[in-house]
Write a structure and sequence with these properties.
Length: 430
């Protein structure tokens, strides 16, 4: 049983779904949290920001650590930290400690996400990874899409605490399955962790993500936003200089000279940014203009993860047999067609008229995500799988943050086109 990679993939699936889901499930519960703690909107927003920034900062580091230790034990540890952090979040007594507990939770999420694709690379031989990467693509896109649905249901029928409590049994099951299903993945060569490089990267990515997240609130030309990007640029340049010259780099920049690695990361970045912007804007239309509840709007969006669930494994398996360029060229075209069809939405549009458009978007994502993941991870030496996995997930997290920001800018700029006289009334029925 331990030698069956498909059984081992169940454990990887649980960890990935849990970590990605938590990046989007909380949004719909924020109004209830704000009311319970008598907090300001800017305070509860940091429950999202703290999680995302911590992920971005630590993904590469934990991917690198995974290259030097037993990755199966590290992955199990990540799920344990995530489950424990979820319990702490559910038991929070004020916003400040809530934010701290979200950071702890994100540490576990960074361990899981930073090593997920590396685990698949170690478990599956070349030629059989495509279908497994298809499963990974399903989990990432579906969890990101299903988060608002599940969050809305839990908040409506139970309480916001259950947005976190639900992770505890899932984490326990995942840890148990890890000991049953994961083969022992032997320790690698021990190398020192580049602590100075990690510090430079943490500050650089942290301020860059902060600038992206808060830029619209502060103003893109405000001193805070400009200062955030200037600090980020300075530290990231210092990090690059450090890594190029250091004997044991945290991030091996030679990987970016591998064409398939670079192209795969770029494709994932663009597609995830497009999906994040779309999923940010659509609830405003469904809830604010059509007047649906949060739970109802989530059901309207189900066509996207359904399409990905159906087609991603097929696309992944085909990428092991056909030239991956075909699907990586067709996918963005299909996704763009879906976006074009969303241009002229009418307030009276029916579910069965909108669902096919969402399905087209899902098809576009399904044709690109597993193929790009497979191409990227197959292109690099297996001993650097952790660095590659952490790098990919870092860029994916950044793309989501940039997609939401871009969606916010579009929403603000086009508000008068969507709603007469520019008056917005968003009725969210919980």
């Amino acid at each position: 049983m331990k030698n069956n990679p498909w059984l081992s993939l169940i454990l990887v699936a649980i960890g990935v779904f849990m970590a990605v889901l938590d990046a989007s499930i909380l949004n719909i519960a924020l109004p209830s949290i704000m009311q319970d703690f008598n907090a300001k909107a800017t305070d509860v927003q940091w429950l999202l920001n703290a999680y995302l920034i911590t992920l971005v900062v630590l993904l590469i580091a934990f991917g690198r650590i995974g290259d030097m230790v037993r990755r199966d034990l590290l992955y199990s540890t990540g799920m344990a930290i995530f489950a424990f952090g979820s319990y702490l979040c559910a038991e929070s007594w004020n916003i400040t400690v809530f934010i701290i507990f979200r950071i702890i939770q994100a540490v576990g999420g960074a361990i899981v996400m930073g090593n997920s694709m590396a685990l698949i690379t170690e478990l599956f031989p070349p030629g059989k990874r495509g279908a497994a990467m298809g499963v990974q693509a399903i989990l990432v896109a579906s969890a990101f899409s299903l988060g608002p649905i599940l969050g809305g249901w839990l908040t409506t029928h139970l309480s916001w605490h259950w947005v976190f409590y639900i992770n505890i049994p899932v984490g326990v099951i995942g840890i148990t399955l890890a000991f049953l299903l994961l083969p022992p993945l032997g320790e690698k060569v021990k190398e020192p962790i580049d602590v100075m490089g990690l510090g430079l990267l943490a500050i650089g990515l942290g301020f860059f993500t902060l600038g992206i997240i808060k830029g619209q609130d502060w103003g893109w030309d405000s001193e805070k936003t400009i200062a955030s990007f200037l600090i980020a640029f300075s530290y990231l340049v210092a990090f690059i200089a450090r890594e190029i010259t250091y004997e044991y780099p945290l991030l091996d920049f030679s990987l970016f000279r591998i064409r398939n690695f670079f192209v795969g990361i770029l494709a994932l970045f663009i597609m995830m940014m497009g999906l994040a912007a779309t999923l940010f804007l659509l609830p405003f239309f469904l809830q604010g203009i059509k007047g649906l509840s949060a739970e109802e709007s989530g059901y309207w969006l189900l066509a996207i993860p359904i399409a990905i669930t159906i087609l991603a494994p097929v696309a992944g398996r085909l990428s092991d047999r056909l030239n991956p360029k075909i699907m990586m060229c067709i996918g963005p075209i299909v996704f763009s067609v879906g976006l074009h069809l969303l241009n002229d939405l009418d307030v009276d549009i029916k579910f069965w008229e909108l669902a096919p458009i969402f399905f087209v978007l899902g098809v576009g994502m399904a044709l690109v995500m597993p193929v790009a993941m497979n191409v990227t991870m197959t292109a690099i030496p297996q001993r650097k799988a952790g660095i590659a996995s952490g790098t990919i997930q870092t860029f994916n997290s950044l793309s989501q943050a940039m997609g939401v920001t871009f969606g916010g800018v579009l929403f603000t700029g086009k508000m008068n086109d969507l709603i007469p006289n520019g008056h917005v009334h968003i009725s969210i029925k919980l």
